[in-house]
Amino acid sequence: MQNQEVYDELVAKFEKVYGEKPTIVSYAPGRIEVLGNHTDYNEGYVFSAAIDKGTFFAVAPTADDSCALTAGDFMETATFTTKTVAPAKEMTWQNYVTGTFNWLFEGKPETAPHGWKGMFLGNIPLGAGLSSSAALEMCTGLALAKLYGKDVDKTTMAKIGQKAEHTFAGCPCGLLDQASSMYGAEGSLVKSDFRTNSFETVSMGPTVAFMMVKSNAKHALVDGAYASRRQACEDAAKYFASVLRKPVTHLRDVTMAEWVLYRGGLSETTAKRAVHPIGEDERVVQGAELLAKGDLKAFGALMYDSHESSRNWFENSCEELDAIVDAAKALPEVYGARLSGGGFGGSCCLLVDPAAADKIAAHITKEYKAKFGDEPVCSVIKPSQGAHLV
Ligand code: ADP
Ligand code: MG
């Protein structure tokens, strides 16, 4: 469904369920990770983009403290009051919304001057790694901030959503998803610095797009593998703090040159893990310089480097993701490709010439199918405008 159709359907359903028109409608997009893999917990850099799919939130005030919330696709309604906001065990989709409401009022939603009736509807596939959860939090936050006349800056709004996700949805996520949804802009990437939690929009122009290729791979032991990678990064940071004559708290503080000189004191595995976030940080910084020069091909080459680093050093790739990247390399219309997100399955992110999207999707699908028997899902993503009131 196109965004306009989602909006129209939401407004029509709102009127049908609540018997009145919404007074405010907001929109927030999902996101993709473009460069900078496993850098967030190492206090490093990430390039991401807001996508051209998102979630709309429609709301109207109530005269008393009553609240009602309807999931527009399921057409289920949860009811509560401003005094009974709490994490729910049923209809758990409401937690992303009620959590955001809760933290918009700093944990005291009972101080809200009145209640509200709301409904949301979106076109981001749920649980597909495009962050439908952050989109839902951010459109909720914008609509409710407007409803109550609160002036909330983008970073604060992202943190409110993250807190909702931690405490109401029970998911210990970083700030990337919410910040990408808030700071996204058309034809642009969002550069995040997870040391300072600052975010900047970097233009890449309208001539390229991304293609997300979703493998059907889901490998066992993912949680354990993720935890062991994180531990290796922490161990390496402690080691570098002990040998470098400068303050080191995270791998963000270590350069590639220092890794080359001092890696001998680390176990082979820990050294291999550490070089991935160190290299990714340098690639994001270099990538920003290349975008400033408009050199999209060189930016794409950094994406291929990122995947090699995952494949050989961090070892968070898998056969299926490698096959997608290898198939991409055969096509001049693909400028770069890499696994995106945690790894061990999930999706690859390709920088592509959108005019060749059909050819690229057909080639990758053919190669993948020949190896694994099933077909990956390819979708073109245009970096798009971030969260806003409609
Ligand atoms: P992701 O954020 O990668 O899509 P999550 O598991 O973090 O995956 O969040 C998905 C959950 O968010 C869904 O299971 C649902 O509870 C909630 N959600 C987000 N958007 C919607 C929506 N438009 N309709 C219903 N539920 C939604
Ligand atoms: Mg999520």
Give a written overview of the molecule.
By secondary structure, the chain is of the alpha+beta class. The protein has a domain of 200 residues: Ribosomal Protein S5, domain 2. Helix content is 42%, strand content 24%. The protein is built from eleven helices and twelve strands. Strands 1, 2, 3, 4, 5, 6, 7 and 12 form an eight-stranded mixed beta sheet that branches. Strands 9-10-8-11 form a four-stranded antiparallel beta sheet. A hairpin with a 4-residue loop joins β6 and β7. α3 packs across α4 and α8 packs antiparallel against α9. The chain is globular. The model has no long low-confidence stretch (mean pLDDT 96). Bound molecules: adenosine-5'-diphosphate and magnesium ion. Adenosine-5'-diphosphate (ADP) binds next to β5 and α3.
Short précis:
With 390 residues, this protein is α+β, with helices and mostly antiparallel strands.
Q: Give the CA-CA distance, first to last residue.
A: 18 Å
Largest sheet data: 8 strands, mixed
Radius of gyration: 22 Å
Shape: globular
Number of strands: 12
Order of helices and strands: HEEEEHEHHHEEEHHHHHEEHEE
CATH topology of the domain at 4-203: Ribosomal Protein S5, domain 2
CATH architecture of the domain at 4-203: 2-Layer Sandwich
Task: Kindly list the characteristics that best describe this protein.
single chain; 390 residues; alpha+beta; Ribosomal Protein S5, domain 2; eight-stranded mixed beta sheet; four-stranded antiparallel beta sheet; 24% strand; binds adenosine-5'-diphosphate
